[in-house]
């Protein structure tokens, strides 16, 4: 058992609409897509303790990304359009799925999690004559856990006994 490799997690971005989803792989052109849960802590000191009691209250998730500006790649073209047109609000939001390709594949695909993200394009930068793009995918709401089939590009939410 070794360290998990980055290629064992795949990232997909919805370049369609919320009604007509079209998930594409964020692969070629992307040089970085991180996963930053950014736990937010709370602290309280009780009268019978000298020290504070801390806990995790929430998360402020984001996924910093960097890519070469290869506009033939659908995900990069979609992100670049948000930055160039300086889109805001729901015009800068879409679906995002992170897939665990090292996980056990079931009949509906690999373990995955899905959420809505706001696409923050921070920079278009000259990198030795080539243009790069960087920014953040900013989490909106909570993850939905389930399975994703990379062949059909279909996400299936997990069901629990209370949902069934």
Textual characterization of the structure:
The protein has about 160 residues and is mainly beta. The protein has one helix at about 75-85; strands spanning about 10-15, 25, 30-35, 40-45, 55-60, 60-70, 95-100, 110-125, 130-150, 155. Strand 9 and strand 10 form a beta hairpin. The radius of gyration is 19 Å and the shape is globular. The chain starts with 8 loop residues before the first strand and ends in a 7-residue tail after the last strand.
Output the radius of gyration: 19 Å
Which structural class fits the helix and strand makeup?
A: mainly beta
Quaternary: single chain
User: Strand fraction band?
Assistant: over 45%
Question: How much helix, percentage-wise, in residues?
Answer: under 10%
Helix count equals 1
- Return the average pLDDT rounded to an integer: 95
- Dominant shape: globular
**Unreliable stretches:** none
Largest sheet: 8 strands, antiparallel
Number of strands: 10
Distance between the termini: 35 Å
Order of helices and strands: EEEEEEHEEEE
Observed structural traits:
7% helix; eight-stranded antiparallel β-sheet; two-stranded antiparallel ribbon; globular; single chain
SSE layout:
Blueprint: E1 9-14, E2 23-25, E3 30-33, E4 39-44, E5 53-59, E6 62-68, H1 74-84, E7 93-100, E8 110-127, E9 130-149, E10 154-157
Antiparallel strand pairs: 1-2, 1-7, 3-6, 4-5, 6-9, 7-8, 8-9, 9-10
């Amino acid at each position: 058992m070794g360290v998990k490799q980055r290629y064992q997690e795949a990232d997909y971005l919805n370049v369609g609409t919320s009604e007509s989803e079209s998930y594409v792989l964020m692969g070629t052109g992307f040089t970085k897509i991180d996963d930053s849960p950014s736990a937010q802590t709370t602290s309280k000191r009780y009268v019978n303790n000298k020290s504070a009691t801390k806990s995790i209250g929430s998360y402020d998730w984001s996924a910093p990304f960097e890519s070469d500006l290869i506009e033939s790649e659908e995900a990069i073209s979609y992100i670049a359009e948000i930055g160039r047109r300086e889109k805001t609000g729901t015009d800068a939001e879409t679906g995002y799925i992170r897939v665990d390709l090292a996980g056990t594949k079931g009949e509906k695909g690999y373990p995955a999690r899905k959420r809505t993200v706001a696409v923050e394009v921070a920079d278009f930068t000259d990198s030795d004559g080539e243009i790069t793009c960087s920014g953040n995918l900013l989490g909106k709401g909570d993850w939905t856990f389930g399975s994703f089939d990379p062949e059909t590009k279909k996400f299936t939410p997990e069901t629990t006994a209370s949902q069934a």
